Amino acid sequence: MTYVRETCGCCDCEKRCGALDIMFVIDSSESIGYTNFTLEKNFVVNVVSRLGSIAKDPKSQTGARVGVVQYSHEGTFEAIKLDDERIDSLSSFKEAVKRLEWIAGGTWTPSALQFAYNKLIKESRREKAQVFAVVITDGRYDPRDDDKNLGALCGRDVVVNTIGIGDMFDQPEQSETLVSIACNEPQRVQKMRLFSDLVAEEFIDKMEDVLCPDPQVVCPELPCQTELAVAQCTQRPVDVVFLLDGSERIGEQNFQSAHRFVEEVAQRLTLARSSSDSMNARIALLQYGSERDQNVVFPLTHNLTEIADALAQIKYLDSSSNIGSAIIHAINNIVLSPGNGQRLARRNAELSFVFITDGITGSKNLEEAINSMKKQDVMPTVVALGSDVDMDVLLKLGLGDRAAIFREKDYDSLSQSSFFDRFIRWIC
Question: What predicted TM-score, i.e. pTM, was given to this entire model?
Answer without folding.
Answer: 0.58
